[in-house]
């Protein structure tokens, strides 16, 4: 899928079961019907009584900035899913080699 | 070449116990045996034979930097100020330090390595005894791409070439670094720090030390993070510790670091992918899942050249 604004490739991220398309060019985000409401609902569950005035799309951004060419981050269960899965021997070796 | 190992071992024994024929039962062994370096340990002494063709003036300047008192809490100091010559190789002697545990990457000392880098980058290189050559990060990336080109054709080579092609000339070692030069390690990874008997972490391996873009030293962890291999928490720990120690490579105020990390992290992703393909071809095997991750990142990079790349996510 291509971004309607800048026509760069859009990448799919999964945020707690909500599919989000983010543009690799302008970083714009495309939400399908109902996804904004799903995000808002999730955010309210997490934040409880705290800061309900935050923009609803805020949780869609990664915790730390990443480059446009980066792999989708943290969208597969973070600590215990995607990353843990890839964190095998080969990466352990890579940490120590030139 | 085969005579190098016993000769190097004799050098380490001579320095450790004043005899080349020491047969004591102190810890000893070959720490590395690669085309570009042979490293042996005997008791508290490590002897390193540097890559064939290493220029002596450059190595001597780098050795002098490691011996400089201003870097005593950053770089491991050598045991001798001059490299020795042994079988056409330059040899240096070092005190032994314990490396990071390779079998426990979760215990990697991210804060410590970040703090050491910040300290290194803050050191004024003009105050060192001898002028240092440029750090060799871009040269190593260019060499990895040259090796890829010299190897048999592989389907993953073309995305790597395309990602390389969109990098600026300085990152491809075709022009000097245009920014203000800082003292840099040049080849940072977790094998590049050791813990001394005094329980202090220090950086080792001065072969690529020199002046250049300090962001290059952060770029390997940055690339691992961008490729989805390093956990966001680990990357954040590393980056925060670097900032807390006053590291000059990234904006100190918590602003997005990617405008400065983008080019070096791309270059190291290309380097990693190029070496992975070269090794896979030599080993007649397929790329593993982690290696594919770097090739995939190269594919995405080519579509977003650095000068167009929006960095950061607000």
UniProtKB/TrEMBL annotation, chain A:
Q: Which InterPro entries match?
A: TF_Znf
Q: A Pfam family matched by this chain, by name?
A: Zn_ribbon_TFIIB
User: Domain Transcription factor zinc-finger spans what residues?
Assistant: 2-40
Where do the record's region annotations for Disordered lie?
47-98
Which residues does UniProt call coiled coil? none
Q: Where is the composition biased (Pro residues)?
A: 53-65
- Where on the tree of life does the source sit, at the highest rank? Bacteria
Composition skew (Basic residues), residue ranges: 76-91
Instruction: Report the protein name in the record.
Output: Transcription factor zinc-finger domain-containing protein
From TrEMBL, chain B:
Source organism's superkingdom? Bacteria
Protein name according to UniProt: Aminoglycoside phosphotransferase
Every copy of the Aminoglycoside phosphotransferase domain together lies at 41-247
Quote the InterPro entries the UniProt record gives: Aminoglycoside_PTrfase (IPR002575), Kinase-like_dom_sf (IPR011009)
Q: Name one Pfam family in it.
A: APH
Q: Which organism is it from?
A: Streptomyces lasiicapitis
